[in-house]
């Protein structure tokens, strides 16, 4: 079962927001102000911890000291000498952050005031503004069942906010999800080591191999977008629904325990988390019911402390 559904009467057409330019500008600025406050209250080292050692240049190996991060231990040197040794890195001056944003039709779903696309824009703003403040280059690949836009990495707050605006409101041609294709596009575009932030609800298949290949060369963080209704569908009797991405119609009995069991089984979060763990990709679930700021803050600090 592909989820979530929209009411069957919703027309199939080129996807876009109905916001007028002034309203769009206010929304982006509102997200920017909230994200700027969050980025100003977060130490720069917390944001840099997203690079997790990657995006850094190797410096030397020395013996382990209390307080060193366990993940920095060099297994080969430790085995050869019989004593724990760690790798030391120095920051590269030219860091690149790339957003890989899934904007398929399922991202337009939200059971409350915000959709998963809104959630993606807010999370991207928080990270993009922190990156812009550190003079890092920020870029994006927006995709559905096709690549909708490529924003080449560049510096500056204005460029970062333009990416947020596109995530929030750019009209789209596609409805479906080609997650593997989006990841492959990032692999083709990135010529040097970068941080890739993947924003998706992971309602797709066949992307695990591409993610593993991307993670072998770059530091990848997966932000999984979700909504409370995807975990517990309201019991409302018979409903005629349409798949948001394929347009397929279906009649379901929303009061049936079997339907609710199938609904929960169709949720991709657990499978996506496991696939990301196998690829060595950090995984953070986000929810439309609350702002992503606290989750991102805790995530930054956990990575800075060496925990996942």
Question: What is the structure about, briefly put?
Answer:
This protein has helices at 21-41, 44-48, 75-81, 116-133, 157-169, 179-189, 208-217, 228-231, 257-265, 269-279, 293-304; strands spanning 5-7, 56-63, 85-91, 96-102, 137-143, 147-154, 195-200, 219-226, 238-243, 249-253, 282-287.
Number of strands: 11
Radius of gyration: 21 Å
Class by SSE composition:
alpha/beta
The largest pleated sheet is described as: 6 strands, mixed
* Continuous helix count: 11
Low-confidence stretches: 5-13
Structural commentary:
This protein has 308 residues and is α/β, with parallel strands linked by helices. Helix content is 39%, strand content 23%. It is built from eleven helices and eleven strands. The strands form three sheets. The protein has a six-stranded mixed beta sheet with strand order 6-5-4-7-8-11, with helices on both faces. It has a three-stranded antiparallel beta sheet with strand order 1-9-10, with no helix packed on it. Helix 1 crosses helix 4, helix 1 crosses helix 5 and helix 4 runs antiparallel to helix 5.
Question: What's the arrangement of secondary structure elements?
Answer:
Elements: E1 5-7, H1 21-41, H2 44-48, E2 56-63, H3 75-81, E3 85-91, E4 96-102, H4 116-133, E5 137-143, E6 147-154, H5 157-169, H6 179-189, E7 195-200, H7 208-217, E8 219-226, H8 228-231, E9 238-243, E10 249-253, H9 257-265, H10 269-279, E11 282-287, H11 293-304
Parallel strand pairs: 4-5, 4-7, 7-8, 8-11
Antiparallel strand pairs: 1-9, 2-3, 5-6, 9-10
